[in-house]
Write a structure and sequence with these properties.
447 residues, mainly beta, 7-stranded mixed sheet, 5-stranded mixed sheet, 32 strands, 45% strand, flat
């Protein structure tokens, strides 16, 4: 880092007791300027300095969330949501609404709210906050989200951090293969020098909620040392290469992991869009103390590679099925990186690009995925009976901005893609009218 010259200095002729000090009126360093004074004020306010509202009255007050993301475990009980203000108003108070903007968490996961109004008193730069109560349970479930946005500000402007994503993390341990990604094969031990070490990841494509297109998921593979529970390497993006030999209905990906540790125990975690979906180990179980799997205990795959292992050996899943829990771990003398494992058969899942003939037992409108989104998102809905339906998008003032469906549809599961390329960031509502019923959900476009 390069130093910044303050622009003044003391010379050999400076009298005893003189100093270089900040002068002016303000609340932060940048409000003041350096000057030379004949009398220092060590331990007291500088001679020409006063703390308080800056003279820069042209700058408007700005309110924004203190962060754009908070992650908590579901057993933490409460979480504090904080909003900051800068360039506060000296004479008038400032108010802003924190509104619920959607998410995957339901009423059983937190104490629901629609709008909470926060007030910043005149002459105060103190942050304002409120508490959200989180519910705990004993069942494993996917991490869930609560989305919030700032709206209806008075006597101020809304800053850049105008949305907040609260992630409620499951605290009941990851259930391997609960999502549509899992670790399918890996090799870590060689009799000689490190060679051909890799991890293979599988993904099932037959998931209705994501069936309209291959989502650009953020997949991260993290390697852990089991002795201390610390992560030592991670792979994402271009590190994860898609195989050209994936079985129908699935994708296989491979990651070159030269240097993967072969002590017992060591482990691997897999996370998707910031959510831990798998944490396995070889040798024994251990608890991670950092990284995506922090505070989770690994699940031992039950087999290991001996020290005499050749470069062609691997640990892989065997059996017949559609998802992780259908298979079992085994050691193989012949690795199959990028292909189905030896002794493994993938059953082709039901894949739907828009509609599925699966029976729906009720009319239902699902939360869009992903959410927040930019610029496209998938909206799924269930129809108990065939008939005329409409699916319409509205902005926050109730103006219709798009009609996605306005026709007869068969009974079953349906999905459609909403492209908001021509719309500005903010909260939108999507409304389904079907079977004489009306269903409405919120979603957040964040560009």
């Amino acid at each position: 880092m390069e130093s910044s010259d303050i622009g003044v200095e003391q010379t050999s002729s400076s009298p005893a007791g003189s100093s270089l000090s900040l002068a002016g009126t303000g609340t932060t360093y940048s409000d003041f300027s350096w000057e030379s004074t004949d009398s220092n004020s060590k331990g007291s306010l500088n001679a020409n300095q006063s703390f308080g509202q800056s003279d820069n009255t042209d700058a408007p007050a700005v309110v924004e969330f203190s962060t754009d993301k908070i992650a908590v475990f579901e057993n933490e009980g409460e979480v504090q949501v904080e909003v900051n203000i800068t360039n506060y108003n000296a004479e008038t108070s400032t108010t802003v609404d924190v509104t619920y903007a959607g998410g995957t968490a339901g009423e059983e996961d937190f104490e629901a709210f629609n709008t909470t109004t926060l007030t910043f008193p005149a002459g105060s730069d103190a942050a304002q906050s409120f508490l959200i109560s989180i519910s705990d349970d004993d069942e494993y479930e996917r991490n869930e989200t609560i989305l919030m946005a700032l709206e209806n500000v008075k006597e101020a402007e809304i800053g850049n951090t105008d949305t907040l994503r609260l992630v409620i993390r499951n605290n009941d341990g990851p259930q391997l293969g609960y999502l549509d990604y899992w670790i399918n094969e890996f090799h870590y031990q060689n009799a000689g020098p490190d060679s051909s070490e890799f991890v293979e990841i599988a993904r099932e494509l037959g998931v209705v909620a994501k069936s309209n297109a291959i989502q650009e998921d953020e997949v991260v593979l993290t390697l852990y040392n089991g002795t201390g529970g610390r992560s030592y390497a991670s792979f994402s993006g271009d590190d994860i290469a898609e195989s050209e030999n994936s079985p129908s209905g699935y994708q296989l990906f491979s990651v070159n992991t030269e240097g993967i540790q072969n002590g017992d125990p060591d482990g691997l975690s897999l996370s998707v869009d910031g959510e831990i979906v798998q944490f396995i180990s070889y040798g024994e179980t251990f608890t991670a103390i950092d990284g995506p799997a922090q505070d989770y205990e690994s699940i031992d795959v039950g087999v290991t590679e001996p020290e005499s292992t050749s470069a062609n050996t691997s640990i892989g899943l065997t059996g017949t099925g559609e998802s992780y829990h259908d298979f079992t771990w085994a050691v193989s003398d012949s690795s199959t990186k990028g292909f189905e494992n030896a002794g493994q058969l993938f059953l082709d899942p039901v894949v739907s690009n828009e509609e599925s003939p699966a029976v729906a037992d009720r009319f239902q409108l699902h939360q869009n995925y992903p959410n927040p989104f930019n610029p496209t998102t998938n909206i799924s809905y269930d129809l108990k009976n065939a008939g005329a339906i409409s699916l319409v998008i509205y902005n926050v003032i109730g103006r219709k901005v798009a009609t996605l469906v306005d026709e007869n549809k068969t009974a079953g599961l349906h999905s459609v893609t909403f492209d908001a390329s021509g719309l500005s960031s903010g909260i939108y509502f999507y409304q389904l009218i079907a079977g004489g019923q009306t269903f409405t959900q919120k979603m957040l476009l964040s560009k």
